[in-house]
Amino acid sequence: MATALQQQLAQIAKKSTDQLDLKAQRAQHSKSLLFDPRVAANQTFETIYQICAEAFQELCLLDARFAPFAANLFSEQSKSEERINLTKKENEELDQIIDSFLGLVSSRLLLRPGLKAVEWLVRRFRVHEYNTESLVLTFLPYHANPVFPTMLSILPKTLPPTLKFLQPYISSLSCPPSQALVYAAVNNPSFFTAFNTYVVRTSNLGHHSVMLLQFWAGVMTPTINGMLDAAMSGRADVRSQRQEDLLLRLVPVLQQTLRIKNVPELFLGSCMIICVLVSKTQLDDKVLDSLMDAVSRGWTSQTVDQGLSTVAIIAEERQSLKFTRPVTKALLKVPALETRILELQTKQHTGRLLTGLAMTSLGEVATSEAFDLIENAVTSHIPTLPQKAAIIQLLLSAVSDLQASSEAVASQERLGRIFSALCQSSSTLPLVQAEAARLDLSLESLEVQLQISLDPSETLALPSVDADTEMMDEPVTTQADQLDEALSSLPQNLSKDYSFVANADVSPFNAFARAFLILLQQNKDLDQLLGKPVLHGADALSSPTYLTFLARLWTSSYPIVARVSALRSATALLHAHSSTTIDMQALTPFVLVALADASEAVRKVAAGLLIAITTLYHPDAAKGKVNDSIKSWAAQSIYAAASPKSSLTGPSAYKVLSDALVPSLEECVLDPSQIARVLASALNGPTQTQPGHPSAASVELKSTLRTSFASWLCEHAAEVPLASVKLRLLSFLSPVGKAASTGRVQTLVPSLQNWIQSDLQTRSASCASAHVDVASVDKAYVDCLTSRTSEELTCLRTLASGELGQSASLSTLAIQRFRALWPTMKPIAQTSAAAFLLDLALDDQSDDISEARQSEATDLLRQVSMPTEVLSSLLESVPSIAQMEDKPPASKRRRTSRSELAKSQSINVADLHNVIRRLTLVLELIEGSHPERHPELLKSLFHVLSELQHYRMQLGSNLVYLQQLVIGCLFSIVDSLKQNPAVKVDRSVLRADLIVECVRTSTNAQIHNAALLLISSLASWAPDLVLHSVMPIFTFMSNTLLRQSDDYSAHVIDQTVSRVVPPLVA
Fold this sequence. Notes:
Helix content is 65%, strand content 0%. It contains 57 helices and no strands. Helix 22 (385-400) packs across helix 24. It is globular. Mean pLDDT is 82; it is low at 455-477, 691-698 and 887-904.
């Protein structure tokens, strides 16, 4: 056991600077990042300073922020400065300067000048001993680089507790993995604190780098995750204490990092850590509020979207819906906040964000923008029903608190508009009624206070029979009078073949629909209307009038009770004739539309109606087949007297119903979108249905039946004049593949053409009566077109170019459809489409529609992935200079000399400019398509480079941008070919002389550099093709580049010499 004296002597030896131990001093002096210890030991400080000062000057040229360090760390005086001779205060000041320099040089440690500069700090100021922590943290982002073990080799034997985790790696001089750093940050509080302090200090000084901040975020995010996992183990009181300790260590760091402005990487890293923190642990609202406040105060225009996403995540974890006032003010200052929230909703939940913002802004900052936000919140689909109920409760309280003032009048108008929107929605009206009842309010009292009408029946009212009825002198005062008036105003003479779905005329239908609704409101027997002879109910299976009235009713935007009653009436009629054998396929499309209704009650009754339709086929009990001669209901009269013959026979219709539709009705009742999936599965067949798809099982229709079924759907979609039904049937057809090709070509394409060519006012009126937007029908039509047939692609082209329907919206829809179909097109179709879109993008018309079309086409060309065949075709579509020359007649050519002929050949300048525009766009497309993936374009690009010389002479312009594009693409291809020798390319197409010509004839330095780099790359890949051009290259370099002093020119010279000279010598 050591004596007390020995222990004291050991402590003194530990702190000794070895001033008298020459061997120890020599060992200390040999510590170096650059040199072998034996070499470093013999170097003088003068020698070291010369090497490092020169590197420091290079750093100053790269970044002027290094210049102040020339007065201290890299001054002449520093050569003789010894830290052991400095006072404690002077050493502390020196430490601050060293820390500042290390933070700034951190991003350049992999550059030779950066490492040399740090070498001076190691050799002169012994930072590896006095500033060990700062040095290690500076090198830590490069822990996987060979420079890191070199740095470890010079560290002292005894490390501070912060860095104890590096001891095993110092022994083996190996790189620590990322997991080791994360483990150290989780389990070593001193390292965790030191690392965060270093990042905050460096960022505050403005010495941060993107690499440092990305490394920090990459380490801290799994670190926080690991800390939270560790804190969740043990007893409840232990877990609570651990979480509190973690928050005390982490929250101050986050608040500091979020306060640093104009460092977006630091802000994004902090947001990542916050998201992990709030999603993995239950935090008090006060903590969440402080984090939310810090994020909202720290975001900038660059980081506002990421900050908004983080605030939304925090809001989802809070107990309270209302936000603090500072957070609300910060959110309301965000430009286009509503649009940003809607975009964010596609990626994450934003319901509590929008709800909290609406609730807080109502009470705290009730501005016009706040009311707009509240209105959008309660009418949008983002908040849940309970969240909307909370907003409505506050709105009702705000109505009760209205006072007689100018501001209150404005608020009253805003609140009135909000409540009108709420009462017009079937989803929010019950919420208003429930919350009002809970507060002992009635809709009538709200009407008095807000001075508006909130009667729910008005929002569901049917249009009147005609204008005369609307303007009656004496209003109907009793329900009986109202019903009598509605029944007496019905049309009395409808032919037996009259169909309510044969046209979009609303007058006769509205009269019957109004009477139907009044009977429902008064709880009267519907037979008072449905039993009238004018509807031919007794002959309903031979006349379309009765059932088409009900079908139009249940497919329109009437109250749920009306749609359900119409379906029940139709089902009851079919049950009453259950013994009759009849094919009701003409009614089936309307039932399919009802199965896609948003109301489950409607879908449930529609399922029953479809089963009733199926039972009327009465298949043979033994064979399960339907008679081929089965009678069809309304086959020739449902849409018009000359309705086309159906593509679906009676037995085929039964097969579709019994095998594909009826077995899936239970799922269709539960999900309104299921019927579309069932139809797509049935029509596409099991091979095209994804495994595990809800409708993938038990749907096995023959290909001929699928084709007939698809054609039948196309016929109904094309023929039906009701916009709402047409829209739904088209949406059913959109995901259908090959089976619908015949129907699309023969039916849908002509129908689309007729629809677009029809009068816009007629289309608008038809859609307005069905509460459907014209643009929605246009889009549904276009979405049905595919790339399977030339007729469909031709139709898309006519729409995109404006030949069919001169409309910007139609052109946009067609071009967007091209974008969606592009991956499914065959190369030949892609080539044709690309040529068409290129012509469209280069259209020289200047009206608004044409400009919008050009922009859409250009964006599409830039965004899609083009194969080599398409790119090659686009290049070949650019005319050469020879093709553009206006050549004289043959007789004159024989009488003129060659020089005279050259003079006589002229080129239209306007045409040449158009060619340049075309070539520019094509080259930009090639550049954006990764030219290294298309080595086959090598020949065409050299041809373009040759043509550019002719274009230059004709235009008198250097065409610098085009030359850069061509040379850049060539360089990418050649560089790729060097790395992939297995790729076979015809080297005879290489034209080094053209590249040399570019160098010699251009005055642009960028062209010079790019061309020389291309020559260098060619020399190392195909040296025999470059040797004959060596002399012009070196002559040019001696006259131009050698006289320039910039780094890039030096790089070009180095590459050229190192790659061209070896083949020449060999």
